[in-house]
Design brief:
The chain is α/β, with parallel strands linked by helices. It has one domain (11-220, 252-259): Alpha-Beta Barrel (TIM Barrel). It contains 10 helices and 11 strands. The chain has helices at residues 39-51, 67-76, 104-118, 145-156, 170-177, 197-205, 225-234, 238-249, 262-270, 278-284, and strands spanning 9-12, 15-18, 22-23, 56-58, 83-88, 90-92, 98-100, 123-129, 160-166, 184-188, 209-213. The strands form 3 sheets. A 7-stranded parallel sheet has the order 3-4-5-8-9-10-11. Strands 1-2 form a two-stranded antiparallel sheet. Strands 6-7 form a two-stranded antiparallel ribbon. The longest helix is centred in the middle third of the chain and has 15 residues, at 104-118. This is Oxidoreductase. Keywords: Oxidoreductase. Residues 19-287 form the NADP-dependent oxidoreductase domain. It comes from Amycolatopsis dendrobii.
């Protein structure tokens, strides 16, 4: 069923998905490391998301590590009607640090690990996560030909169905497209952290989805009196307003807000129905200066 999916729909890698999806990162323990505080609640979150119409789920083997993929397999396999998007390009050290690993051999190992932990023969969509920079989450100019080419080879082998890129600039997107089709781009973008508007517009014209990570601010949640004021006036939560603002920006934006709580999940999905009047949008547009 694709009627009344949260936030409307978009075609991602040939499948009609709800624009309001779910990001599994927060199902792991504190710092995205170790097991969940409440495994039963984590399983319930995943199953409730699907019951609410969510059919686009974002994950990675380095969440935990392995934790979110193992939870997904337990809760949702064989993933009927779901688009599971994972990412490679990093691993975790014993202290929970995030280590870049992007050689062809390392990426092959990561793809094989995702296949095993998700329990599938081919991964729906794999994002190559590059970038980093001083804040760890911004594009860094440079070639991604070798790592993306390695994933393109794995796609030819049938281990990956479709490819995307994450934490990239427009030039890197174009370079990736010269190697293999790109079906999605995932970057840091929200009401307070902008800059990708031209990239989003370009992708929309090509029918390519743009997935903003940290739609609610990331590890430091959005703190804005303007956001709070708009939310209070609309009788909504600031989180709901921030998500609704993103859905309003472009029809190719797909959201993946994460939570480890069924109650918060329901609030996030409800944000897909929130209408933002013109004056509220104008106010929100002032947040990023």
């Amino acid at each position: 069923m694709t009627d009344n999916l949260p936030g409307g729909t978009f075609t991602l890698a040939g499948r009609t998905v709800a624009r309001l999806g779910y990001g599994a990162m927060q199902l792991a323990g504190p710092g995205v490391f170790g097991p969940p505080n409440d495994r039963d609640e984590a399983i319930a979150v995943l199953r409730t998301a699907v019951e609410l119409g969510v059919n686009h789920i974002d994950t990675a083997d380095f969440y935990g590590p392995y934790v979110t993929n193992e939870l997904l397999r337990e809760a949702l396999a064989p993933y009927d009607g779901l688009q599971i998007v994972t990412k490679v390009g990093a691993v975790r050290d014993d202290q929970g640090g995030w280590i870049h690993e992007r050689s062809p051999e390392q990426l092959r190992d990561q793809v094989e690990s995702n296949l095993h932990n998700l329990g599938v023969e081919a991964l729906d969509v794999v994002n190559l996560r590059v970038g980093g920079g001083p804040d760890g989450h911004s594009p860094v100019p440079g070639s991604l030909a070798e790592p993306f080419g390695a994933l393109a080879e794995l796609r030819k082998e049938g281990k990956i169905k479709e490819l995307g890129v994450s934490v990239v600039d427009a030039e890197q997107v174009a370079q990736a497209q010269s190697i293999a089709p790109v079906v999605t781009v995932q970057n840091w973008y929200n009401v307070a952290h902008r800059g990708d508007e031209k990239l989003i517009e370009s992708l929309a014209a090509q029918g390519i989805s743009y997935v903003p990570f940290w739609p609610l601010g990331g590890f430091s949640p959005l703190q804005s009196s303007t956001l709070d004021d708009v939310a209070a006036r609309l009788g909504a939560s600031p989180k709901a307003v921030a998500l609704a603002w993103l859905l309003h920006q472009s029809p190719n934006i797909l959201l993946i807000p994460g939570t480890s709580s069924v109650a918060h999940l329901r609030e996030n999905v409800a944000a897909a129905d929130l209408e933002l009047p013109a004056d509220a949008l104008a106010e929100l547009d002032t947040i990023a200066g």
